[in-house]
Amino acid sequence: MFPIYDVIVIGAGHAGCEAAHAAAKMGSKVLLCTMNMNTIAQMSCNPAMGGVAKGQIVREIDALGGMSGIVSDKSTIQFRMLNRSKGPAMWSPRAQNDRMRFAEEWRLALERTPNVDFWQEMISGIVVKDNRVVGVRTNIGIEILAKSVVLTNGTFLNGIIHIGEKQFGGGRTGESASKGITEQLVGLGFEAGRMKTGTPPRVDGRSLDYTKMEIQHGDENPEKFSYSDETKPIKEQRPCWITYTNTNVHKALEKGFDRSPMFNGRIQGLGPRYCPSIEDKINRFAERERHQIFVEPEGWDTVEIYVNGFSTSLPEDVQYDAIRKIEGFEQAKMFRPGYAIEYDFFPPTQLKATLETHLIENLYFAGQINGTTGYEEAASQGLMAGINASLKTDEKDPFVLKRSEAYIGVLIDDLINKGTEEPYRMFTSRAEFRLLLRQDNADLRLTQLGHQIGLADDVRMEKMLDKKADTARLINDLKQKKLAPEEINISLEGLDTATIKEKITLEKLLKRPQIGLTQIMELDANLKQYLSKYSKDALEQAEILIKYDSYIEKEQQMVEKLNNMENYKIPIEFDYLGITALSAEGKQKLNKIRPETLGQASRISGVSPADLSILTVYLGR
Ligand code: FAD
């Protein structure tokens, strides 16, 4: 009934969809197995993509040839570039999405991808021979064979849902938990752990009084995620609103604390620190009289509203009572209560940089199963696991991104070397080269790499090369063209044009903090006409590169230094245990993680600088 597949992907969440699409696009014969085909690419929590650091990840996925950016663009209901007032390293695209359309677009994209087959069933185990995965076993006992398997089970492994004192098995509300895989993997020698996450109640938008809330519009000139021309920025947008909790809401919530699974010890898994439940917030920050609530539509046509900031696992009657004390929510009708979910994960220090497991060859883990939280984090891991599973099947070199190349590189490097005790989410502060890893240049950083492995198509590649050439030409022009002091009549607060005594190049003028290309264009109609022949992308790129060139250069120098260590390979079978001079902790961690380079070894927590020097000597450097 089934052929032997190159890659079987288990789970059609954000990780699974990217993994299946990437592997198939690269020519692998793929089977995507999922428990319910009607919930492909379900957004389990908020209907939004991107945000700080996460938006950069979506752009990186897109630049490599992944689909999350395109799918998000096709289902966007509001778009904002966050942190525009800060430096370009901090600009972060964020879209509010139509939940149903997002899932539909992903399903259509997968159905249109040649080489992807589907199978709807719970996979209860993998088939292993001689420490190598050779297939999967379904719940009704079918064995399907494959050269590699990617596990992307999300929050489903032995998932338990909590609402107040009620608890029941489930992978998400209304969906069954996945049984059998954790137990089998632990039997094979894997270490497993437990984490938790939560989601807020959803309400009927028709029952809210928006006049009591602050309206939040999208950007006036919205952008989009994808660098490709397959999508366009949206023309119309839906607004969101902001309101706040108050002391009455807090008192109502506190009444349920004795029935809270968070506080009575029933939930043991660690939750996401940066996405706490409302009960956690009022408990930890008792002095705060209010917390912000974002009131977000779930789509274009639906009346359902997502109450962002009000994640809770308190009993449903407590949720209902408390939510109606929020300003604007006095008559709120609840569609679904909030809940918390506990699930199994596998500490990611058990993985190689390709996301293949150390223990079982050709078995890959991606997404929430690795202890991360967030669609973007999951999607990017799925993409990398799918790429690597496909490359390995074709006996090609692995594809690994460096920390200096992408947030995706930072994410995977952190996971495999440091592990994570709590749900890991990406922040700009986790990246040491954030001026290099901007959302505006992900195509310049990554499209060529995606093209080389057969994922990014020729059209993307040409578009990126045009942008690169255009930017270089523009920078050259800005270096040549000069203006006399009397031609520079810009009046801007804090700008003293009197200090400009002689002719100055546009490049030098642009380096002044207050002046951007928009101001320069306003100086002279000819200049405006001339500069307007360049694309918006090239203008933005040139401005950033000129304004921040000294900082960018400093980061590049640091990268070069780091690359010396990064390029120094350690043989996979290296005998750490035989080096008595290594510290006990260093020896144990190096032996477990088996770093592929000296650079990677340097980032393993517990490996000291002394251990590194000893290692360098033994490697005969
Ligand atoms: P999922 O999206 O969970 O997808 C898993 C897929 O695997 C599903 O399609 C499922 O059907 C399938 N599957 C599982 N087991 C099997 C099996 N044995 N056989 C076949 N198919 C299987 N993220 C945030 O960033 N912020 C939040 O506030 C937040 N809150 C959340 C609240 C809740 C209640 C939940 C459930 C998730 C929340 N998340 C949040 C996390 C976010 O949803 C996930 O990080 C993201 O969806 C993970 O993607 P994934 O692909 O790893 O897994």
Describe this entry's structure for a reader:
- By secondary structure, the protein is of the alpha+beta class.
- The strands form five sheets. Strands 1, 2, 6, 7, 8, 9 and 20 form a seven-stranded mixed beta sheet that branches. A six-stranded antiparallel beta sheet has the order 14-15-16-17-13-18, with no helix packed on it.
- The longest helix has 23 residues, at 458-480.
- The termini are far apart.
- 48% of the residues are buried.
- Bound molecules: flavin-adenine dinucleotide.
- Flavin-adenine dinucleotide binds next to helix 1, strand 2, strand 12 and helix 9.
- Homodimer. Heterotetramer of two MnmE and two MnmG subunits.
Cα Rg: 26 Å
First and last CA, distance: 54 Å
Beta-strand percentage range: 15-25%
Which ligands, by name, code or SMILES, are bound?
flavin-adenine dinucleotide
Largest sheet geometry: 7 strands, mixed
Choose one word for the global shape.
Answer: globular
Number of strands: 22
- Unreliable residue runs: none
- Coarse structural class: alpha+beta
Number of helices: 20
Oligomeric state? single chain
| Average pLDDT rating | 94
Note the topology.
Layout lengths: L4 E6 L3 H12 L4 E5 L13 E3 L3 H11 L3 H7 L1 E7 L9 E6 L1 H13 L4 E5 L2 E7 L2 E7 L4 E9 L8 E4 L2 E4 L11 H7 L5 E7 L2 E3 L9 E3 L23 E5 L2 H8 L23 H7 L7 E6 L6 E5 L7 H8 L10 E3 L2 E7 L17 E3 L9 H19 L13 H12 L23 H11 L5 H23 L1 E2 L20 E2 H6 L5 H5 L3 H7 L4 H12 L1 H18 L17 H10 L4 H5 L6 H10 L3
Parallel strand pairs: 1-2, 1-9, 2-6, 9-20
Antiparallel strand pairs: 3-5, 4-5, 7-8, 8-9, 10-11, 10-19, 12-19, 13-17, 13-18, 14-15, 15-16, 16-17, 21-22
The structure holds flavin-adenine dinucleotide.
